[in-house]
Amino acid sequence: AIRHRRGAEVEALAEPGTTARYQRGPLKAMVEVLLLQIGWAKIKADILANESLPENDPWWNETAVMIREFTYSMNTDGMEWEDSCAARDYEAYTVKSCSPTAGGSGMVRGVPADAWYCGRTQGMDWGPRGKPYADLCNAEVGSAYKPGGICDLSKKELLLNAVYRGPSQWGQDPTTINVPSIDCIMGIGDCDIYYCQHCAGHCRDD
Hints:
Layout: H1 8-12, H2 26-49, H3 58-74, H4 76-86, H5 90-97, E1 107-108, E2 111-112, H6 113-118, H7 155-164, H8 167-170, H9 182-185, H10 189-198
C-alpha cells in the first residue's frame, strides 16, 4: 500500500507493484498510472545518477520543477489539489483530501494513512526516532516554506528523500511517509498543514 497524496502525488510516484486508489474512471486511471510509473522510473534513475552533484547545482531545481509540472499535467487529482492550494482554498483542498475514498483515509496500522504523513503522535509508534520527522499537526499554516518550516530543505534533499524514503519504503515503514519530499516540491505544504489539522483522526483521536 502507498500513502495517499490524497491520491495525487503518491499515486504519481507509485512504482510498479504498488497499489493506488483512484476516484476517476478505471480506464483513465490505468492510463495515467502507467504513464506516471514510466515517468517516475526514469526520474528516479536520473536522480540516482546525479546524486553526487552539490546542492547548489541548478540540476536539482530544474528536476524539481520538471517533476512538479509532470505530476500536475499527468494527474487529474494533482491538478485539482494544486489549483485549490494555489487559490488558498483550504476548505476545498481539505474536503477532497479528507474524503473517505482518498488514499490518505485508508487505514495503516490502525490509523488513517495520512496520520503518519501528518505526524500524529497519539497512539503512534515512531520507532527508534521516537517522534515524527515533520510535525504538521502543530505547524502554523503559512510556515511550511519559511526558515525552519516543514519544507525548508534543499531541492536535493527533497528529491533524495523521495528516492530513499519514498513510495518504495512506505509499505515496510510507514514512518517514512512523514519525511518531507514530493508534497513540498509540489508547493502544497501549507495546504497539507491545514488539511492535517482539520481532518478527523489525522492528528488525534476524534
